[in-house]
Amino acid sequence: MATIKDVAQLAGVSVATVSYVLNDSMPVSEATRNKVLAAVAKLGYQPHRQGRNLQRQRTLTIGVLLPQANLLCELDLATWLLEATNAATSAGYSLLLQPADSQARGDLADGWISFGTVLDPQLPQIWALAPPFEQPAVLCDAAFAAQRAVETLTHAGMQRIGLITLPRSIPGSARWYLGYRRALRRAGIAFDPALVVEPADNRFHDGVAAYEALAASENDYDGLIVCGNQLATGVVMVDHAKVPLIVSHSNTQRGISGFRWPTELWAHTLVRKLLQQLDGSAIAHRTWLNPSLVIGSLGFKEDLDGFNYV
Amino acid sequence: MATIKDVAQLAGVSVATVSYVLNDSMPVSEATRNKVLAAVAKLGYQPHRQGRNLQRQRTLTIGVLLPQANLLCELDLATWLLEATNAATSAGYSLLLQPADSQARGDLADGWISFGTVLDPQLPQIWALAPPFEQPAVLCDAAFAAQRAVETLTHAGMQRIGLITLPRSIPGSARWYLGYRRALRRAGIAFDPALVVEPADNRFHDGVAAYEALAASENDYDGLIVCGNQLATGVVMVDHAKVPLIVSHSNTQRGISGFRWPTELWAHTLVRKLLQQLDGSAIAHRTWLNPSLVIGSLGFKEDLDGFNYV
DNA sequence: CTCATCTATTTAAACGTTTAAATAGAGTAT
DNA sequence: ATACTCTATTTAAACGTTTAAATAGATGAG
């Protein structure tokens, strides 16, 4: 690997001059600039990150604290990471993965993305899921989704809408409930706690159990909202869309109505926000993104004809 | 952040001694060792990666070339990355994400994990999916899976077994076909090309199309193997397990028989292999891992009673 | 012609480590 | 006592950059 010294030697100038050309941090005459650039091109020189960082005290790296396994199922993490990587790379940064439970190595990255664990409150960081109050975050609004779901069902004439929530151990689960309550209130429909079931955990058989609990309670309901990918898989297995159904994520079960989470936009926005923060710019403390409802072919499509569900 | 100088000063020794204690690269008397360790503990000192790397010419980082989106669906990449991160972290390494199509920055990592793109043949790297011939790799054996699937069906008395392959654009797709052919040959069953359908692409509606093509061809079949997660989702939607069905991945569609890919083991093994290679140890050029068949509750469980399918 | 001013360039220190080489100090054999 | 060996420790160079400070060279004013 060619170093800056090699470039300097080949161009017949000092290393400082090369550095000045490459970062244009000092005026350099046209003639020497050309000599330097020619040498750079000839040697295929690329500055050595480690060396540069040592001096600049910047790692040009963004750390990601990988969430626990049980969070993963509610988030297309692979797509998320791919998009975040793209965003970081195009800004000259790299993404570094770190298990959330490892002890903090704060100096490995300039900033951190967190899905659920505080690294060290001192370090620059940004959240992607249900942050502690003080931390900046870019979030997808589950309350909005829940509200849209309820509105869609009530617009189609339903009045008793069941809700299978996420278990409260999942960060942000409360917001589904919040949106549900809010939409009911706005629609002037009385809240009936018997229509809400919280599953024990987030696995597919918990969805089955929750669904059966709802069915066994002899509470009649004419529409159902299921929060959570895994849960919904279970519910769909048992229910076969007997009542109009809206699930939290549209991506796995086709035919069922559900929400498209703006994963790419989410990752992109978050990375750029973090980079702005690192640049010292003031950033909005909270940025909310809205999922969009995708009506599937199964269930109640005919009931919704003429309803603008974009 | 405390530096090694601070530690040296506090302990009343030279920086070299501190370094020798921390890496035990030179003998140090018990007394000074204790002084140093006390100082380290008191200051909460952790060596600065950049500085260390600069000297050692090691980044202590493993790069991951993130695969294209259409590969992702056949691989639980989130779990894979989490496990790889754990393995790397416990060896003192970090994982660095890089888009496969970005121009190579080889010096960012000591070694590279590749899912489908060659970074630079010179760089130390290891493959996780269908490598070029010369590259070392740790792979999950789809041929083994296909063979197990065929065996399972023939053991249950089936003779005409349909195969919906992966599109050949997917790396490694040929191995499904290979295993299928091999198992048929061993079972003494004639190969009928009419029972094999290659879908146009890897999306769920391609599965639907492939299934319908097979059904329309009026070829009777008594068992079906579907390679690919997305494809299987489509097939299951249409078929509802009319014939005994085995799909490539067991994780999303429960009730259906399918394979459990040893994702955690896979990631772990691959990372350790790469680290061995970086240490200069000779490593096996190919390591094969076998997926295991999980028989679901739907379909032909009763036909398999008494058959040892572990 | 001298001095000041400005610009382009170089020198050298610094960042936080590791490590080869030098040194100090203790013990041992002569 | 002297020289030698061995061990524990320090000194200083090196890794690849950036950048403050120094310097050289040109231009212009007096």
From TrEMBL, chains A, B:
A single MF term (Gene Ontology): transcription cis-regulatory region binding
PANTHER family: ALANINE RACEMASE, LACI-RELATED TRANSCRIPTIONAL REPRESSOR
SMART domains listed in its UniProt record: HTH_LACI
Ranges for domain HTH lacI-type: 2-56
Entry keyword set: DNA-binding, Transcription, Transcription regulation
Protein name per UniProt: Transcriptional regulator, LacI family
Pfam families: LacI (PF00356), Peripla_BP_3 (PF13377)
UniProt key word Transcription regulation: yes
Protein's organism: Herpetosiphon aurantiacus (strain ATCC 23779 / DSM 785 / 114-95)
